[in-house]
Amino acid sequence: MAGTGASVKMIRYVVKCGGQQQHVVVAARGDRKSPAIAAPPPATVRMPGRVLCCGMRSRGADLAGVEMAAGPQPQGGVSGLFRGPRSSPRYSRVRATATVDPEDIPLEKVQAKSSGSVLPYVGVACLGAILFGYHLGVVNGALEYLAKDLGIAENAVLQGWVVSTTLAGATAGSFTGGALADKFGRTRTFILDAIPLAVGAFLSATAHDVRTMIIGRLLAGIGIGISSALVPLYISEVLEHAQQLSYLRLRLQISPTEIRGALGSVNQLFICIGILAALVAGLPLAGNPAWWRTMFGISIVPSILLALGMAVSPESPRWLFQQGKLSQAETAIKKLYGREKVAEVMYDLKAASQGSSEPDAGWLDLFSKRYWKVVSVGAAMFLFQQLAGINAVVYYSTSVFRSAGIASDVAASALVGAANVFGTMIASSLMDKQGRKSLLITSFSGMAASMLLLSLSFTWKALAPYSGPLAVAGTVLYVLSFALGAGPVPALLLPEIFASRIRAKAVALSLGMHWVSNFFIGLYFLSVVNKFGISTVYLGFASVCALAVVYIAGNVVETKGRSLEEIERALSSAS
């Protein structure tokens, strides 16, 4: 673009005409709105008025029309600038005589406008993910102390119910969260969700008997179950168009298929941050046994902030469009992406709503020959994730460290939480480089080795003097391995491998498998440990991890760098 000056703006269009995809780059110089066409493909495209061929309305210079010439184009710059529309009110013609790759346009020559701001609203939604992790992890350090205060110190079954009641509530919340979001909207459901989160935290913090504690944990569980469905839904819907902002595409050189993995890790990362926050909050317990009440009460604050933040956050444009609230959808788009993105996003929403003529599948269709294999893969991913023992570590690592002779048991658990966050951050960068399948295999392999080390540290007499440090090292390695793949990948992989017509129900079924298995592990872990010993239980977890590696190698497809449509076609041909 030499010689055009720093005020040249490039607008890139991708249009489909006659079954072929055409790339159009429009240059608007200064305030004269003088367009040019670069990078013409070998085809001729005629576009009437301000509509780009198939109905996409121009968002750049005021074009009366464009025709691109067929045949090869010489290299070496852009020509064909014209000073204004020709006399024809319906069609104008411009012939491009050069080819320029839009990705080769220097950044300083591109002025991409976007007056909206998405990240603050994503941050508000992530409070729901933080609360999810916090309520899961808060019992880790507090369980022993609250058990003494509530008179259940010697009752492993009731302690299991204090832990697992949250998971029972989460199971119910996860199945109802999507329906509530579809009926009332995403932001309004967030506000409603803050009620059980805050009330449950208050009851838990003020409980003086196990019944009140269980009710509080149940309400909090319903809240985090709704959040588990709502947070990724809202984040994906407000980021799906932010991915297409010009400055993201040109400056960062990325595309939706390339960043899908990183975006899919956002929810998991903030869940891990919530778990870490709960473990760090337990550090004062050693000096103040009544601190466990404060630990539960702290979570009231982010619950209130979530409700207040969502009260001023824009609703999902996709949901508003589906409800026929077009003017409100345009208002939300302006707030999220800027005024100049309204036409593009509204067009995309309209195209998406007309994209599939096949009706949504029913629940029984999930078990048909056409879909059963892929549905079983999704359910197996979450089953392996839970039976591998991760939540036994999240809930009970402090108790295990204490039995291994670690003096700073809560601090050791906080170190485990930090490893979880660190591993998830690494996974976000590796997701679209190494691929989902390879990360899963590496992750479960590392988890198997770590669990085997933990089992041996409690069994071999030769390792007895080192059982404490080995317990901490093995647990940290286990959690780090989990965070690299087994933690974030299944939630990302499921929407990619499920066909669009079964996606919602298949994801719900898989999440149901997640919560049910999570519930039973939380309920019976202490009882099983008391009966069989921690070494045997850890050896069982190691066996599950090894079995997961074999299953993934034979049944899971790689989805890295492939569009959702390509993945769906590959799965259809495979089955």
From TrEMBL:
Gene3D superfamilies assigned: MFS general substrate transporter like domains
Chain segments annotated as transmembrane: 118-136, 156-178, 190-208, 214-235, 261-285, 291-312, 374-398, 410-427, 439-458, 470-494, 506-526, 532-553
Main location: membrane
Stored InterPro entries: MFS_dom (IPR020846), MFS_sugar_transport-like (IPR005828), MFS_Sugar_Transporters (IPR050360), MFS_trans_sf (IPR036259), Sugar/inositol_transpt (IPR003663)
Organism encoding this protein: Oryza nivara
Pfam families recorded: Sugar_tr (PF00083)
Annotated membrane topology: Multi-pass membrane protein
Keyword Oxidoreductase on entry: no
Molecular function terms from GO: carbohydrate:proton symporter activity
Family to which the UniProt record says this protein belongs: Belongs to the major facilitator superfamily. Sugar transporter (TC 2.A.1.1) family.
Location relative to the cell: Membrane
GO cellular component terms, semicolon-separated: membrane
Keywords, ordered alphabetically: Membrane, Transmembrane, Transmembrane helix, Transport
UniProt xrefs under SUPFAM superfamilies: MFS general substrate transporter
Protein name, entry field: Major facilitator superfamily (MFS) profile domain-containing protein
Residue ranges of every copy of the Major facilitator superfamily (MFS) profile domain listed in the record: 121-560
Superkingdom in the source lineage: Eukaryota
